[in-house]
UniProtKB/TrEMBL annotation:
Name of this protein: Thioesterase
Keywords attached to this entry: Hydrolase
Keyword Hydrolase: yes
Any GO molecular function: hydrolase activity
C-alpha cells in the first residue's frame, strides 16, 4: 500500500521501470485483483492498482456511484502518482473508467502510451441494464452468470453481505453512465474481449475505434466476461509487448 495515497497500491514498487501501468478494477473489484499482474510485469513495468473506496481497507469510506465523480478522483490520484511514461488498463467497469480518466489526463496535457480496455463495450454503445435495481438474490444471480467470483464466496453469508453493497454501487455507476459526445482520445486503444462475453458483443467492442484518433486494435480470446483470468499469461504478454515496444502515442 502507498501510505501517502489511499487510491493507489504498488504491490511491487519498481522505481527503475521505464513505464507505469495504472490498473482499474471491475465492478465490485479491488486493487488486489491486479497483484498477479504486477508480479508478472515487473521489473519492466510498474503496476499502480487503483483501490476504490468502500472495500477492503477502505470499507469505512463512502462509495462513489457515478463514473464521472470516480474518474475525477482517480484522475487526481494518477496525476500525483505517475512520474514517467504510463498506460491505463481497465476491465469491465474499469475499462469505462480508464477511458474517462484518460480523457481528463489528455485535457491536462498528459497522454497515455496506450489505453487497454478489457471486457467492455465502447462508451457509445448503451444498453438498458438495471442490475443495480435488483434485490440481493438478483445481483448474486448476475455474478454467478458472469463466472468471475470465487464460488466459495457464495457460500459465506457474512462475506456476501460485505461484498454486495460495493457490487450494487459499481453496477449503478456503470449502468447509469452516459458518454459525452466530445470524449475522444489521442492515445492508441487496445480492446481485449472474450468471444462469448454476454456484456460486450464483437461489434460493441469494435466500436471503441470511434473513440480514439491514435490507432485501434482488438484482441479476442475464447471465453466469457472474465476471459482474462483463464488467459492471464496471454493477456500479460500482450500488455508487456505493447508497453515495452510501444508505438508512439499521437500528441
Amino acid at each position: 500500500m502507498n501510505a501517502a495515497d489511499p487510491w493507489i497500491r504498488r504491490f511491487f514498487p519498481t522505481p527503475d521501470a521505464p513505464v507505469q501501468l495504472v490498473c482499474l478494477p471491475h465492478a465490485g473489484g479491488s486493487a488486489s485483483f491486479f497483484r498477479p499482474v504486477a508480479q508478472a510485469l515487473k521489473p519492466e513495468v510498474e503496476v499502480l492498482a487503483v483501490q476504490y473506496p468502500g472495500r477492503q481497507d477502505r470499507h469505512h469510506e463512502p462509495m462513489i456511484d457515478t463514473i464521472g465523480a470516480l474518474a475525477d478522483h482517480v484522475f487526481r490520484a494518477v496525476t500525483r502518482a505517475v512520474d514517467r511514461p504510463f498506460a491505463l488498463f481497465g476491465h469491465s467497469m474499469g475499462a469505462t473508467l480508464a477511458f474517462e480518466v484518460a480523457v481528463r489526463l489528455e485535457r491536462a496535457g498528459r497522454f497515455a502510451e496506450r489505453v487497454f480496455v478489457s471486457g467492455r463495450r465502447a462508451p457509445s454503445c448503451r444498453r438498458d441494464e438495471r442490475v443495480h435495481r435488483r434485490d440481493d438474490a438478483g445481483i448474486i444471480a448476475e455474478l454467478r452468470r458472469l463466472s468471475g467470483t470465487d464460488q466459495r464466496i457464495f457460500g459465506d453469508d457474512e462475506l456476501m453481505r460485505m461484498v454486495l453493497p460495493a457490487v450494487r454501487n459499481d453496477y449503478r455507476a456503470a449502468e447509469t453512465y452516459v458518454c459525452a459526445t466530445d470524449h475522444r482520445l489521442s492515445s492508441p486503444v487496445t480492446a481485449l474481449t472474450g468471444d462469448g462475453d454476454p456484456k460486450a458483443s464483437h461489434d460493441e467492442v469494435r466500436a471503441w475505434s470511434a473513440h480514439t484518433t491514435g490507432g485501434f486494435e482488438m484482441v479476442r480470446y475464447p471465453g466469457g466476461h472474465f476471459f482474462l483470468v483463464d488467459h492471464a499469461p496471454d493477456v500479460i504478454r500482450v500488455i508487456n509487448e505493447r508497453l515495452t515496444r510501444p508505438a508512439p502515442a499521437p500528441r
